[in-house]
Amino acid sequence: GDYVTLTAAISDLNSKILCGALDLVLTDSVYPNEIFPLVINYNPGSSETNTISIKPAPGVSPVISCSTAWTVFLLNGTDHLIIDGCNQIGGDSKDLTIINNYNVENINSVISLRNNGIRGSSNSTIKNCIVKGYPSVYFSYGISIFETAGNGFDNTSILNNSIKNAKIGINFNGISGDISENGIIRSN
Questions:
Q1: Which residues, 6 or more positions from 152, have their beta carbon under 8 angstroms from its beta carbon?
Q2: Strand boundaries in 37-167, DSSP class E
């Protein structure tokens, strides 16, 4: 690929404005040299057509494993992001494994969608992944959505994931009076 690590690809993405769709294709079976958390910030160029996609290459079953941070992926106000664990076009197999073995803090998650203080992570999809948490941590989440400043998580979809070893598989923590619309949580 164009980047030695996923960390480098995401760092480059965070420093630019999208002008088209971006596919980050995972070509390796393991990702041992990443700096966690992998923070994907809001990109003002993202849209329905200018999506950000993270997906395994055909025939590859990658493992991204973290033991040094409270979350593996942090979607920080990110819009139009798709993490699709299937290594086939249009398929629904679960070929991407994301693991968080961090056991230092009382709270950890594998994939965390957060409000960046201005906006939530809307129009994002997490599907076809094997998500593994660390079960002995007091609060461990497979996929966590934490809204802290309003502006919701509209059109967020969590579909066909296998969530293991987390005390709470999927957690959606909102603000009273705020509305997140048209989200789908199905077949996990």
A1: 120, 122, 174, 178, 179, 180, 181
A2: 38-41, 52-56, 63-66, 73-76, 81-84, 96-100, 107-114, 125-127, 129-132, 139-146, 157-159, 162-164
Question: Helix, strand, or coil here: 19?
Answer: coil
pTM of the full predicted structure?
A: 0.93
DSSP letter at 70?
S
The two structure tokens encoding residue 107: 């709270």
Confidence of residue 94 (pLDDT cuts 50, 70, 90): very high
- Name the band, by pLDDT with cuts 50, 70 and 90, for residue 116: confident
The b-or-e profile of 13-35 (16+ CB within 10 A means b, else e) is beeeebeeebebebebeebeebe
Q: Are 66 and 72 in contact (CB under 8 A)?
A: yes
Whether the upstream peptide bond of residue 58 has omega within 30° of 0, thus cis, is: no
Using DSSP, how many helices (H) and how many strands (E) does the chain show? 1, 15
% of the chain residues with pLDDT over 70: 90
pLDDT at 187: 95
